[in-house]
Amino acid sequence: MKFSVSSSALLSLLATTGKVISNKNTLPILDYFLLELTGNELKVTTSDLETTLTGTLHVDNVESEGTIAAPAKLMLDSLKEFAEMPLTIEVNDQNWEIRLSWKSGSLSIPGASAVSYPVIQTLSPDCKELSLDVDTLVNGINKTIFATADDELRPVMNGVFFNLEPGKLTFVGTDAHKLVRYEMLLDNEITASFILPKKPANLLKTVLLKEEEAIQVSFDSKNAVFRLKSHTLVCRLIEGVYPNYNAVIPANNPNKVLVDRIELLNGIKRVAVCSNPTTNLIRMDIGGNQINLTAQDIDFSVSANETISCSYEGQPITIGFKSTFLVEILSNMETPTVMIELADSTRAGVFNPVYDDKRPSTTLMLLMPMMINA
């Protein structure tokens, strides 16, 4: 294998695909990049057995094709030291030595045979396919991934739930304390669902930033494939039945609060400093177009309160929330104003961003309350 390539283009590709590589790989070969040169196309593959990311790059001056496993850390550490310049990469097929040459020098890195590199999972013939707009996929993941859990006992909650219905796509993330449901109108006739694990979801967020064209998504009961312009992500899905999220969303919420999101967020952050570090409880007394935020830690005799003006419809209500969850929910909205809908102090609060215009998507965030000690 011998070819020429731009140092920055190669580094960019390796840095992106390298995000798949785990710190604790079960197989030594998974600490390597799989480089495959066919014609003028260099294909780079990384895998952790659950997730596989493949990227392609156009290279020049190809003298011979081939396949090699290159050590990821050494390759990245070496390429980071180069300014933008052409590199010639040559592989010795006898001892798997990788030689990088440039105008004023060269370096050699020990490679390995690619024979033992794991084979990429394939989908079943009856897999389902759809095309998704980049913005739809990015927004769906961004708005829900923060609400997913890290729960070994309930793995279905550790990913983003994709629910396809005719004319609609719903993204859901929940950890049983908070829940986010993002619904998007979609020209779709499929009825299906799958749970995308957190790691490939985060990888997609990174890779999609450079995409403009529609993403082709294929999936069966065990795996999903996301085909982008120059990358392909294959991942194992989380198997299991996702909880009935619609059942926990309160339907009748007579108490409605309209409040400035940033003002409320900053007020919570200030008051939360004095909350109990174990519970992070913040008490909200709402009534008379005011929200009174209170937090205290009896053990250290500290307390704080702040009053924020709002527009309120309903009976006076007192409810407690975990401040860290409140901050997460309010931080993951982009509108200046938020609508909080409440039923009573024991039922979940529903947070809706308030948009000035009509949109093809709706975002609903839900937070379970905490008991307030009398």
From TrEMBL:
Keywords: Cytoplasm, DNA replication, DNA-binding, DNA-directed DNA polymerase, Nucleotidyltransferase, Transferase. It is found in: Cytoplasm. Residues 132-244 form the DNA polymerase III beta sliding clamp central domain. Residues 248-359 form the DNA polymerase III beta sliding clamp C-terminal domain. GO terms for biological process: DNA strand elongation involved in DNA replication. SUPFAM superfamilies: DNA clamp. One of its GO terms (molecular function) is DNA binding. Residues 1-120 form the DNA polymerase III beta sliding clamp N-terminal domain. One of its GO terms (cellular component) is DNA polymerase III complex. InterPro entries: DNA_clamp_sf, DNA_polIII_beta, DNA_polIII_beta_C, DNA_polIII_beta_cen, DNA_polIII_beta_N. It comes from the Bacteria. It holds the Pfam family DNA_pol3_beta. Confers DNA tethering and processivity to DNA polymerases and other proteins. Acts as a clamp, forming a ring around DNA (a reaction catalyzed by the clamp-loading complex) which diffuses in an ATP-independent manner freely and bidirectionally along dsDNA. Initially characterized for its ability to contact the catalytic subunit of DNA polymerase III (Pol III), a complex, multichain enzyme responsible for most of the replicative synthesis in bacteria; Pol III exhibits 3'-5' exonuclease proofreading activity. Belongs to the beta sliding clamp family. Forms a ring-shaped head-to-tail homodimer around DNA. NCBIfam families: dnan. PANTHER family: BETA SLIDING CLAMP (PTHR30478:SF0), DNA POLYMERASE III SUBUNIT BETA (PTHR30478). This is Beta sliding clamp. The lineage of its organism: Bacteria, Pseudomonadati, Bacteroidota, Bacteroidia, Bacteroidales. The gene is dnaN.
